[in-house]
Write a structure and sequence with these properties.
Strand content: 5-15%
Largest sheet: 5 strands, antiparallel
Distance between the termini: 30 Å
Order of helices and strands: HHHHHHHEEEHEEH
Shape: globular
CATH superfamily of the largest domain: Ribosomal protein S4/S9, N-terminal domain
Oligomer: single chain
Number of strands: 5
Length: 209
């Protein structure tokens, strides 16, 4: 399976925002943006160039890809599917990304980052509606029930993630039961219910050229 092996901290520095790719570390002073709040590379500290419209669109697309941990071809396929759906293309795109299984596991607090959620899913630790799913990109639907497998409920990494989870961080369209290590999709989220600092219209403009 192809994956992005770039330094996670450099990805955040390049976009200039915290993408929370390293879980709880991003909330501490060890976060790269707290120590070096400028783009990586030899000239990162001295960049003063004016960014073009294309540059703004590209950066927004890269920010979305890196936030959800998706490579270019897969992201473009998501955009094509979103463009074929009824409604606003940008909102459709974000909705599809939010309903990926790895993102839902992260949102429910069963993993401290999306990359950790992907690893746990690949190692057969999660079920969707009672069936083991090992595909991080599995597209969930409204009313789907996600749970930790019975044999995996003693895993320290999952228990630690749930213990450190902020009860106020769960989005309104998800319901989580920490005691039984289960969660469910209450409804398909609207744009206002998706807490990502992205301007999806710039992504649509980039791919519409």
């Amino acid at each position: 399976m192809a994956r992005n092996v770039d330094s996670k901290c450099k990805q955040c520095r390049r976009e200039g925002v915290k993408l929370f790719l390293k879980g709880d570390r991003c909330l501490t002073l060890k976060c790269a943006l707290e120590r070096r709040n400028y783009p990586p590379g030899e000239h990162g500290l001295n960049q003063r160039r004016k960014v073009s419209d294309y540059g703004l669109q590209l950066r927004e697309k890269q920010k979305a890809r890196r936030t959800y941990g998706i490579l270019e071809r897969q992201f473009r396929n998501y955009y094509r599917k979103a463009a074929r759906l009824k409604g606003v293309t940008g909102e459709n795109l974000l909705r599809m990304l939010e309903l990926r299984l790895d993102n839902l596991v992260y949102r429910m607090g069963m993993a401290t980052s999306r990359s950790q959620a992907r690893q746990l899913i690949l190692h057969r630790h999660f079920e969707v509606n009672g069936r083991t799913v090992t595909v991080p990109s599995y597209q969930c639907k409204g009313s789907d029930r996600i749970s930790v497998r019975q044999k995996s409920r003693k895993l320290d990494v999952i228990k630690a993630a749930l213990e450190s989870r902020d009860p106020n961080s769960t989005v309104s369209w998800l319901k989580v039961d920490k005691g039984t290590m289960t969660g469910s999709v209450v409804s398909v989220p609207s744009r206002e219910e998706i807490p990502v600092p992205l301007n999806e219209q710039l992504i649509v403009e980039l791919y519409s050229k």
